[in-house]
Amino acid sequence: xxxxxxxxxxxxxxxxxxxxxxxxxxxxxxxxxxxxxxxxxxxxxxxxxxxxxxxxxxxxxxxxxxxxxxxxxxxxxxxxxxxxxxxxxxxxxxxxxxxxxxxxxxxxxxxxxxxxxxxxxxxxxxxxxxxxxxxxxxxxxxxxxxxxxxxxxxxxxxxxxxxxxxxxxxxxxxxxxxxxxxxxxxxxxxxxxxxxxxxxxxxxxxx
Length: 207
Ligand code: MLT
Hints:
- By secondary structure, the protein is of the alpha/beta class.
- Helix content is 30%, strand content 26%.
- The chain has five helices and twelve strands.
- Strands 1-2-4-3-9-10-11-12 form an eight-stranded mixed beta sheet, sandwiched between helices. Strands 5-6 form a two-stranded antiparallel sheet. A two-stranded antiparallel ribbon has the order 7-8.
- Strand 1 (2-3) and strand 2 form a beta hairpin.
- Helix 2 (76-96) packs across helix 3 (111-122).
- The two termini are 27 Å apart.
- The relative contact order is 0.14.
- The chain binds D-malate (MLT).
- D-malate (MLT) is lined by residues 29-30, 68, 71-72, 110-111, 114, 136, 162.
């Protein structure tokens, strides 16, 4: 189903009748859309409910989840606003689609990983876990939120053209200080995902 209400164009894929009590929240990269991560999610957790919004900010026609001033330089006011709007959308969609009792695990790639990290840090009770593929540090939270025991996968790349390795270390430190259970996977290539990223996410996905 594609729907444009709640401010976000999105797809919702209903869970299989005996599927896991999990909703995967899918957050695409810059220039992507709500369809991009559905095949990956279906491989990772067959039968789960999928909630896949399209980022509402357009950069030269390419959807993103928040504005940026340059590569890796984020508009922090817009990031805050968009993160809060996305949180509202997730809560209202969970009620609307009858999956409010599900745990919510985010799968985000690149710009989608950055807003997923922002959701974790600004709305620490909302997500039950997050797999962040090629994330940066969205912002530096003060004070650090309580993410005790929330599992987070950071899937970084050794030769990422966009994300410097120091950013992976810094994000890991922020999340660990917040109490999250951080797992780091290092992909040997660049920003694009490889089969090893998919395998790492499958192994990481909480039971
Ligand atoms: C971002 O702007 O979120 C990151 O630079 C990743 C990207 O979308 O290129």
